[in-house]
Amino acid sequence: MTRLVILVLGATGTIGRRVAERLRAAGHAVRAASRGGETTFDWARPGTWEPAVRGVSRVFLMAPDGVPIDPAFVSLAVDQGVEQIVLLSSGGIEVMGDERLMAAERTVRDSGAGWTILRPSWFDQNFDEGFLRPAVMAGELMVPLGAVRQAFVDAGDIAAVAAAALTRDGHAGHSYEITGPRALSFGEAAQIIGWAVGREIIYLGGEEEYIAAQGFSGDAIRAAKAFTALRALGDQPVTEVVSQVTDRPPKPFESYVTETAARGAWRP
User: Where are the alpha helices (DSSP H) in the chain?
Assistant: First the structure.
């Protein structure tokens, strides 16, 4: 039997790193690709694409925020023999007007390969590895969603769903809305982190203060409008995807916070 070779893009990032680790722990052959990783892959350098995808049968597909998924790469991958593509997308992209990810989803659906689309909620790790960490460290978290609750999900759970979709039957043709076990407002999340680190983290959830803090720029106004549309949906529903796909419950936000604080991620 030919051994399955899986290409993981973004393999040094929050999700890709965990996908590669999980696949390797299960004994799969992984080609970990990124601009500065084991295998060089750069969306801006098409010459890196073919060497990365050569001999691969399955791909974990993602691109950094703001970078489009190039249909030419997806076509190349299928031409090279890729049979299954698992795309990291995001929840709420229609209401947020995320044309980049909507186009990426269309591309993989039309690729001719088997596909699975992952639509996770906000990552827990946004608070310690991602764009919200500076705000946590400064003690002032600003996201214009008011008291609306989001079903934060742990990056490890997203990676577990991705690994299952890449290696097990029954996931082709599915789009998965991936959430944590319960929805929290950003204010509640800030309070939980504050308790764990022993200092107050203030939450500012208004649209006007968000726009003012961003300098009244066009980008800030457009972002605020997108957040307004998301807020209008109300509290995000919780799904059972993690439990159904991985046969284990998703990690509670409190557990993520306790573990993260214990390793000193928010230590000044």
Answer: 14-25, 49-53, 71-79, 93-96, 99-109, 133-138, 155-167, 186-197, 207-213, 218-232, 241-246, 253-262
